[in-house]
Each structure stands twice: as structure tokens, then as C-alpha cells.
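Hi P.,

Sorry for the delay on this. The queue was packed all week, but I finally got your sequence through. Input first:
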Amino acid sequence: MHHEIHRHNIAQRARNPVIRDLVQRLERAGTAAFAGFREAVLAEFGDDMMILSPIGTSDYACEHYGRNIVRAVGIDFAGHPVSRMPGPIADLTVESCARVLAGDGPLLTIHRSLGTAGICLWERLVFRITGVDGDPRIVIFSTPMLYHEALLETVLASSPCGIVALHAVREADGTVTRGVIIAANRRAAELAGKPGHDLVDADARATLPFLADETVWRRCLYAIELRRTDRLEASHVVNGREVWMQIALAPLGDGLVMTLTDVSDLMNANLVLQSRAATLALEVGRERATRRALSNEIGEREAREQELRRLAETDPLTALLNRRSLKEKAEALIAAADSDGGAISLFVIDLDHFKQVNDRHGHPAGDAVIRAFADLLLGHMRAGHLVGRLGGEEFAVVLPDTDTDEARRIGERFLKLLRATHLPVSEDLDLQVTASLGIATRLPGETIGDLIARADQQLYRAKNDGRDCIRSGEDLIADAA
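Then the structure:
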């Protein structure tokens, strides 16, 4: 624990004006004038003071423990010895009291708070008085040196992003009717088209032009009422220029904080890419196969743009979860399972001989097979199952609250359904395909990456064992038995 003890220049070092006032009183009147301390000073500053009396040679009893100190530390030590305080605080208190009793006082001490909820240092003035019984007492004026406001001001002033805090104004029935701005930095005013304006106390929807969009405002209401973070994009026009912003929402009290990031350059770059794709589409024109190739190129461009904005959640070909979104949502299920002890299984599915489909019928037919297979797989799964495409012809399904046996039953039912199904490719063509499936059930401490890797191993076993079958780690245990 960081701490300092100062004997000299206390008035110059102290941040709290009360400490400087007390030091001046001591210098003018001396210790003897504090015989009436309880009446003269305790009544004025007692909420921030401790009064200690010596116990033996190395401890002190708390005769008085100020209410403000109790609120700050969460514990009332009145009637208890200093040795009951947390170790570093007790050591510092005993050391400073001993020095003051020995005549080395008054002292100014500074120490870091042991708690993590606040960013603060504690500033103390430690001095000796004589009690009404003639025995010595130690008085400690103790106050936190808070840095919250300074920190907030620095962040708001220096942030390249706009930062706005809103307070929700509600009707008697609890309905939010509007939002009042309670804090905003200069960058937020610039992005709102009001440079140099103080936005505080203004109506949010009337002041921030992007909140006039009903969709954006509704997302803000969801963040307030559901107590959840959100991220979205919105645009508005400032001085004839369209400004695109990425808006991050975070609940704060009965309101929220918005972080505004100007992404206009990124959006303009995306528009350039889209323009090039559209030009290419017009040039290609008539032939169906070429148009389809162009559509794939546009899809890839759009996927890259969405990835840059970190908004992509679905696979563009199948509308299933993509690998990144599947892993993110699966990690949330894993966290929930760690708290309630539920089992999580995962199976990886890979279409058999898929290359032959592309070679015989063309890649458009292969895409149609993948889409039809994805629709069949998604329709077979229950609500709560996560279905995603890992890439190519490989898919994965995360099954919460499901052990290996149940996962195998679900997989076997699906393979049976697949064998009996002809997947539509075009108006005059449908294909019958099979798939191989590997199962893994999560072990304690495993991440989703570990789980996918183990399921992949079982998938390779299924491929090596002839395809159109299911394999799991429990198979090896049964074979060994």
C-alpha cells in the first residue's frame, strides 16, 4: 500500500482546506488551547474525524469514528482497537500515532485506498490533544482525495470520440418520454453540428440530430430499459455533409452513455467499393453464370465491409451464424454453464464428397446444395441450439444442456433425415448427399476453440471410417472397454 508521512510544510502539501485551517489553529493556539476540543472542533468537523486513546504500548482504541469515514470505508470501528483495521492501514495509523505521542507532530499522512471501487487517496492530519481527564488523545482528520471528477473532465476533454450522458425523463407510469443531457464533451457538440455549444441540460432528441431517427431512439430506449449495451450506426447531415457515426450505448443509472465515433471515411470507402461492384455488374450483363460470379464477388465485398465494421454475425451464403459469431455466442453459453453446471455438447458436420458436386454440376450448384443443407439443418434443431457454418461445407451445432448421448441421438435423427432428402439445386435438378459428424462434450475449463478441435478429431474419424456416420470420444472409451 502506497503511503507518505510528512512533518513539514503541511499547509502547503494538504489539498483539503480544512487541514490547512486546523494546522493554522494549532500554530496559533498550541495544544493546550484544545482542552475544549469536543465542543469547539468536533461539532464542526467530527464527521471526518477519529479520536484515539492509547492502549498499552502499541495499540489505540477508537473513541470516536466519523460518519463520513464510515460511509467511505463501509465499517464503523468506534469502540474497537486500531489493530482491528486492515493490516497496512493499522500499521500506518499506529506508526503516525506513536510519532505524534513522542512529540513529532502534527503529521500529514497520505495513503492509497485498499478498496477498488474508488480512485482515491486518503489524506489525514494527525495531532495530539489533551482529554478532559488529562490523558493524551490522538485526533485524526481523515478525508478522501477524490479524482473521479478530474479524471472524468480529462477523459471528456481529450477523447477523440463524442461522449454524451443522458438521464431518462419518465411519466407517472414509468414510460420514458425524453432524455436530458447531463454531460457532453466538445467533440459531441461538433458531431451534432453545434461546435462551441454547451449541450448540458438540453433535450437530447432536439439537440442530437441522429436521435430524431425513430429506430435509433428505440435502440436507446432498449438499452435503458433492458440494462444492456448496444452498438449501431446512424447518419445525419451537418452543414451539407453527411456524417456517419458508430454509436456505442451503455446503461448508466436511469439513463445511458453514448460514445460517438465518426466513421464517415469508412462509409465513403464502402460506397466506393459498392459503386465499383455495381459498375462491374452492369458491364457483365447477360450471361447467367457470369452474373452469378459477380454476385459472389459483391457478397465477398459486403462481407469484408461488415467485418471492418464488426457488425457481421451471419454467414452470407446460408444465413447461419458465421464462425466468429458462433464462437462468441458459444462462449456466453459456456459462461452460463460454468455457473449452473449444465452440460454443453457440440457436433461438427461435413458434407461427404462435396468436391464431386462442384466438379459435376458447377459451383452455383454447390452453393445451392450448401444453402439447402443449411436450411435442413437449421429446421431440424431446437430453439436454443446454435447453428453455424465454420467454412466451406463444414458446419457446427452447439447444444446447451445436452450430454453426449442426447447429442448422438439428435445427430443420428438428422443423418437419417438427410439420407431420405433430395436437396433442390434448380428447377430441374435435385441432389442427394450424405454427411459425416463428429461429437464432443465440453470438459471443465474448455473453451469453444478446444471443443471444436476435439469435435473435428471425431469428424476425421468418421471420414476415415467410411463417411455417413457419427463418431465421438466416448466411442474410443467403449472400444477400449
